[in-house]
Amino acid sequence: MRRSALHRWYVSKILARHNTSRPIQQALHQALRELDASSAPGLNVGCGATNLHPRILRVDLDPLALPDYLSSADKLPFADNTFSVAVSQEVLEHLREPQLALAELARVVRPGGLLYLQTPFIIGYHAAPADYWRFTHEGLAAMLQRAGLAVEALEPAVGPGTALYRIVVEFVSVIAARVYPSAYLPAKALAAALLAPLRWFDSWLIVGEQRWRIPGGCLALARKPI
């Protein structure tokens, strides 16, 4: 197994299990249900190894992800009003100009179409190939509105348990690297496995009036006006 494939497995199965959270799955289910009811295709921008639906076209900059289209998010190779549903999961933080990418997503979604957007709030630096931004729920809503989209749902994608998990895993890994410079990745892999139960607090803390204090990330469903 090549290191790149091993890395993708580690991220998806251990470190980034947050995409299986109930809020994420429920919101994605709504988006895919609308896709099933439509004759137009769907789009996943920054898809990575994810394959959400056979009628979703996959776009990524990484050829190892085997996307349908190699393209940047801020200049999509599609005509206006093409897709019934668009998905972008934790991509905007890696873009120098995330508002341009949102404008592109709004452009290629047809009137009445739906965008599922997921962004991080508390997470360590993770270059892919760069890492620029973090998003509060208010900031995410403002950006969607600036792109001309109407926000229909806005929720924590993952809660404080995941936020704490991410920070403690990085903290342990950085300490290990100060002792032995080559120990960062092995320490991170071990800490990620051992500290995984911290994420169980999400189901309890992801609701309530304080849910926006330290969520791991946010999700939004936004619709293009007819």
Structure in words:
The chain is α/β, with parallel strands linked by helices. It contains 7 helices and 7 strands. The chain has helices spanning 3-15, 22-36, 98-108, 137-146, 160-179, 184-194, 202-205; strands spanning 42-45, 56-60, 69-70, 83-89, 109-120, 150-158, 217-223. The protein has a 7-stranded mixed sheet, with helices on both faces. Helix 5 (160-179) runs antiparallel to helix 6 (184-194). The N and C termini lie far apart (48 Å). The model has no long low-confidence stretch (mean pLDDT 93).
Spatial order of the strands forming the largest sheet: 3-2-1-4-5-7-6
- Sheet bearing the most strands, described? 7 strands, mixed
What is the CATH T-level topology? Rossmann fold
Structural domain count: 1
Jot down its keywords.
alpha/beta, Rossmann fold, 37% helix, 7 helices, 226 residues, seven-stranded mixed beta sheet
Summarize the structure.
This protein is of the alpha/beta class and 226 residues long. 37% of the residues lie in helices and 20% in strands.
Task: Map the helices and strands.
Layout: H1 3-15, H2 22-36, E1 42-45, E2 56-60, E3 69-70, E4 83-89, H3 98-108, E5 109-120, H4 137-146, E6 150-158, H5 160-179, H6 184-194, H7 202-205, E7 217-223
Parallel strand pairs: 1-2, 1-4, 2-3, 4-5
Antiparallel strand pairs: 5-7, 6-7
